[in-house]
Amino acid sequence: MSNKTSRRSFLKGAFDRAAAMRPVGALPAMEFEDVCTGCGDCARACPEGIIFRDSEGFPVVKLRRGECTFCNACTDACDTGALVAGNAWPWRARAKASCLSRNGVQCRACQDHCESQAIRFRLQPGGSSQPLFDADLCTGCGACAAPCPVNAIEFTEISQQLETSKC
Ligand code: SF4
Ligand code: SF4
Ligand code: SF4
């Protein structure tokens, strides 16, 4: 992929789409799209079957389809250098406004599936409960995402969460 195409994609992305969740070990977004050939080796290597192709042919992880076990099979399968062992996984979970519990409906499905015990609930006036995700305990594995009955779990990059918390 040419630098021109990648840069255009980046600038477009900066304005109208959120950062894509690339497989474990991915280079930063612009570099990744320059180096990744879209060969699909990472997707074929993933035992959980959670790596798909996005509209531009790049691999994207869909935690709604299953949990990442951090087995590193995707990283190991990448011969281009787009996925590099040791690069930290930057994603952390949080609940969107559509969360049942936030809207007064009893639900603890995400908490029940979190082995890291990263989720607790804070009671709110009126009977709703706010799920709180501890970014230090959360590994970004996604085990909470598929069990959520209303697809209310989203993942953001740690740097983005820090920016949001400053606002
Ligand atoms: S680390 Fe393993 S489970 Fe996670 S996306 Fe890569 S191959 Fe799949
Ligand atoms: S599983 Fe989904 S709807 Fe239920 S409490 Fe968690 S985020 Fe909310
Ligand atoms: S992503 Fe994993 S560690 Fe984080 S809250 Fe969900 S289940 Fe727990």
Question: What do you see in this structure?
Answer:
This protein is an alpha+beta fold and 167 residues long. The chain folds into two domains: 3-77, Alpha-Beta Plaits (2-Layer Sandwich), CATH 3.30.70; 91-166, Alpha-Beta Plaits (2-Layer Sandwich), CATH 3.30.70. 26% of the residues lie in helices and 16% in strands. It contains six helices and six strands. It has helices at 3-16, 29-35, 41-45, 73-77, 109-112, 158-166; strands spanning 51-53, 59-61, 91-95, 119-123, 129-133, 153-157. The strands form three sheets. It has a two-stranded antiparallel ribbon. A two-stranded antiparallel sheet has the order 3-6. A two-stranded antiparallel sheet has the order 4-5. Helix 1 runs antiparallel to helix 2. The radius of gyration is 17 Å and the shape is elongated. The chain starts with a helix and ends with a helix. 29% of the residues are buried. The model is unreliable at 1-16 (pLDDT under 50). The structure holds iron/sulfur cluster (3 copies). Interacts with the cytoplasmic NapA precursor. Keywords: 4Fe-4S, Cytoplasm, Electron transport, Iron, Iron-sulfur, Metal-binding, Repeat, Transport. One of its GO terms (molecular function) is 4 iron, 4 sulfur cluster binding. Its cofactor is [4Fe-4S] cluster. It is found in: Cytoplasm.
